[in-house]
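Q: How would the structure tokens look for this protein?
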Amino acid sequence: MVNNFARITGGADLHCLELSEGLRERGHEVRWLATRSDQNLETSGEFVPHAVDAQSRDRLTAKERLTAARWAIWNPHAAAAMDHLMRAYRPDVVHVHKAYVQLSVAPVVIAARHGVPVIQTAHDFEFVSASTVDSGGGLWDRTESRLSYRALNSATMLVRRSVHKPRVSRWIAVFRDLAQS
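A: Here is the predicted structure in token form.
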């Protein structure tokens, strides 16, 4: 299970935690790749450093902003953690939920390199448009409050379209309008 957070910050996190519980109840082993936090509700898997979130993004130093932007494109910690999970656990499938801006495309690329199928649950329009709330397919995020945030979302959109999407074996959409996009 790949998700930015192993704690509840929103609906996608709750979905992942409940899905993991349901899979375990049915006899499946589940390991996570998420960010490290004392608030994590999930402890089985690999947990990488946290770069930024909606609460901290306005307080980052210039160096921290640069690190967060680099990690949004390719997170080396997430890549190493996924490689470790692939070698140690050898999963049948990798189920990705929300990977941007914390984990990046790295877990998807590493899973594909190991020949493990990737299932992607889309919780919003992030694979359709640069903005998670835009169903129109825009390559430029026009909804974020700052130019730097819009630019980062637009840059990761290029990665999501050209690198992430081609490596996904199966898609799950959480609502009908998204499935039809």
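The radius of gyration is 16 Å.

The helical segments are 11-25, 62-73, 76-89, 106-113, 147-164, 176-179.

Upvote if useful.
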